[in-house]
Write a structure and sequence with these properties.
With 112 residues, the chain is of the alpha+beta class. It has four helices and five strands, in the order αααβββββα. Helix content is 48%, strand content 24%. The strands form two sheets. A three-stranded antiparallel sheet has the order 1-2-5. Strands 3-4 form a two-stranded antiparallel sheet. Helix 1 crosses helix 2 and helix 2 packs across helix 3.
Length: 112
Amino acid sequence: MQVMIAIHLAIDDLFTLERNLNKANLIEALAIKTGNTKVASGEVVEALFAIIGDALANGEKVQLIDFGSFAVSETRARMGRHPQTGDAIHIAAAKRLKFTAGAKLKAEINKK
């Protein structure tokens, strides 16, 4: 939770002109807020992504209180239509990633 708050504050301080937060900016913001090096912060970000990815790949739900929840849902196979030709096509079953924002994140987004 402290890391999430630090990231949010660092983003406000560093990237006011930038519209998108990418991985490099996230690592830099984390390094500044925690006083760690970019290398150490990069390792933390990589580890966090790996942990979340592994949990989701194993079918687990990842819930980060106040930030949001990640979950994998399965869609069934179905028939669809090709948008240009109108021909019937088979759409295979697939897994989809779902994100649901937490209450504090929603409030933060709506505040601005």
